[in-house]
Input
Amino acid sequence: MINRSAGACLVALAALAPACGLTPESRSPGVVPPETSVQGRWWTWAYSADDDASPVQDTTGEFCDHAQPDDLWFLAGTYGGTVRRSCRIPAGRPLAFPLVNLLGDAADCATFMATAKGKAVLDGKPVEPERLDEAGVTVTDSAGTGTTHACGLWVRLAPLPTGPHTLTIRGSSGTFRTGVDYRLVVEPAPQA
Output
């Protein structure tokens, strides 16, 4: 989901905060305020992993469950190119994921969104993405918590039925391309 082009903040998550104009606040790193947008929550989730356990850099799905919140399940794209991942998801979790996304300023997002395209196909059926372009998005990384501008093409899905599913994600903006072929398995809730 990440790309870097002239002035856009799109490369390594660990290096993004200062370059993207995040402004420090007094919250502790790793704490996501409940009012945070899905974009802010996703970026905070993506920032929470070291490179060796990054869901964005993952080529198999082994880090799919890294630091997932209790109320939804995030999926990640790539830093460019296409991969195949398998992921087990607990029943009852809505899904949220970008087809392509960016942190930057308003001008970066305007340029990025002018050429942003993407599609998602769940179990053979297309899913309509939504265009999100928000100022004041709260994001937490290793340097702390701050606010920035975020934009992208996003999908939010209601919880999937238990069992196997296929999800194809494709996104692009300018010359940047990302894609993931997911095999998702929604596991039944444990019996009490």
